[in-house]
């Protein structure tokens, strides 16, 4: 094979590689656009993916979701998780409880007008429009012996059906866990990680 033929083959292979790279990029881009910003009128009318795990979701603009909002009905297979500490909503604990006990549910963003006392007393009007509402309290107690820190975590939460207001026993817990670390935050993280079903 002479040099000119070899250069021609390399040139064509390079061109083919570039075309394939552009095709893959366009395919991935179209998949992203269709999934997140796509034309929902061409999508089949299906129920939400029940195995989806989302930390926070905004209500998408499909006709099915619009009808749910207009009727005031909770978004199907969704949960709002609100765990309160002494100084208000504990986002770290709320996220961990959501990831642990509600991983198969869509979880909605925390509303800006959330009312701590109302939620704890059973009034869920300020909660996100979800099928399940989990409300609870968490307390941390730290003990430092000079070398290590022990964190005691007391967590109590109850879950209610937004449709009926009834308490769901299987999704309500009272938990006590301990974590040991070299700082308060490390001991707290260890204790939180021990909270699981």
What is shown here, in short?
This protein is an alpha/beta fold.
What's the β-strand tally?
7
Q: Determine the number of helices (DSSP H or I, runs of at least 4 residues).
A: 5
Low-confidence stretches: 34-71
> Percentage of helical residues?
25-40%
Q: What is the succession of H and E elements?
A: HEHEEHEHEEEH
N-to-C span: 68 Å
Estimate the global geometry from the Cα principal axes: elongated
Mean of residue pLDDT values: 77
Beta-strand percentage?
A: 25-35%
Query: Main beta sheet: strand number and arrangement?
Result: 7 strands, mixed
Structural class based on helices, strands and sheet pairing = alpha/beta
What is the radius of gyration computed over CA atoms, rounded to a whole number of angstroms? Answer: 25 Å
Question: What do these coordinates show?
Answer:
By secondary structure, the protein is α/β, with parallel strands linked by helices. Helices cover 36% and strands 29% of the residues. The protein has helices at residues 3-37, 63-71, 91-101, 116-120, 184-193, and strands at residues 54-57, 75-85, 88-89, 106-108, 130-144, 149-161, 173-181. Strands 1, 2, 3, 4, 5, 6 and 7 form a seven-stranded mixed sheet that branches. The longest helix is centred in the first third of the chain and has 35 residues, at 3-37. The chain is elongated. Mean pLDDT is 77; it is low at 34-71.
């Amino acid at each position: 094979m002479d040099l000119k033929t070899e250069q021609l083959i390399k040139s064509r292979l390079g061109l083919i590689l570039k075309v394939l790279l552009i095709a893959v990029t366009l395919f991935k881009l179209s998949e992203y656009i269709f999934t997140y910003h796509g034309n929902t009128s061409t999508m089949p009318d299906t129920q939400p993916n029940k195995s989806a795990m989302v930390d926070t979701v905004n209500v998408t603009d499909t006709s099915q979701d619009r009808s749910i909002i207009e009727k005031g009905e909770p978004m199907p297979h969704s949960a709002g998780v609100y765990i309160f500490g002494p100084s208000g909503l504990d986002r770290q604990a709320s996220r961990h409880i959501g990831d642990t006990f509600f991983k198969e549910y869509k979880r909605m963003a925390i509303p800006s007008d959330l009312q701590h006392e109302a939620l704890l007393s059973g009034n869920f009007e300020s909660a996100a429009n979800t099928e399940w509402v989990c409300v609870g309290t968490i307390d941390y107690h730290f003990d430092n012996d000079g070398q290590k820190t022990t964190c005691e975590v007391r967590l109590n939460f109850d879950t209610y059906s937004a449709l009926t207001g009834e308490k769901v026993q299987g999704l309500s817990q009272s938990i006590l866990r301990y974590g040991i670390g070299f700082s308060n935050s490390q001991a707290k993280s260890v204790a939180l990680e021990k909270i699981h079903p």
